[in-house]
Write a structure and sequence with these properties.
With 247 residues, the protein is α/β, with parallel strands linked by helices. It has 8 helices and 7 strands; from the N terminus they run E-H-E-H-E-H-E-H-E-H-E-H-E-H-H. The longest helix has 28 residues.
Amino acid sequence: MQIAHSIALVTGANRGIGRTFAEELLKRGAAKVYVAVRDTASLADLLKTGDRRLVPLPLDVTDPDQVAAAASVAADVTLLINNAGYAAFDGAISAPDMQDARLEMEVNYFGPLALTRAFAPVLAASGGAVLNMLSMLSLVSLPMAATYSASKAAGLSLTRSLRAELGGQGTQVVGVLAVQTETAMGAKLPEPRLSPLEVVTDALNAIEAGINDEVIAGAQSRNIHQAFTADPQKLQALMSTRLPQRG
């Protein structure tokens, strides 16, 4: 599909990769971008440009009522970008409890599932696309972000199932895998980090190219993915040395 004249919905659009998606969609000629966040007041800086194509949308992806309301309000969407994410950056055992692990699954797995289910009929009518922001941690587990890695692995599996199920209605489904990025979340991981624009550019290029698969976004991600492809066990062994900090 073409970004020009498309109508997109971006979750987690107030900062980082989500904000960059919104800005780049406008540059590529999107007709409208629903910028979806839990608190629309956090969009003030993005909206100060006055671009009327930006439409604030209150949305907590973990709230079924808000998901349903969003699908009703944004019934003209042709591109759904599931970008909202949460990471506790803790170990599976060292975490004080399982609260963050449950929230990671709610935001990173159940959120995209709920949104895609809600928007599937809309996308069937428009011949549209779904883009899920995943992570290289969908493929390898980082013990210092153990339950986040698990939620992203679940997200990758979900994305592949969605692609198979929605293929019959002509909906393109792209999963974007990237390493640490220069965002508030990514700042907790070591340098070097990708710029959000690197990730977003490769992701939107894939949408426009009609790719219906996973996309490895950014040169640094592609280098890591090449190492994974060459020897998955070796890369996992290296990642397994990154243990949670104790004490």
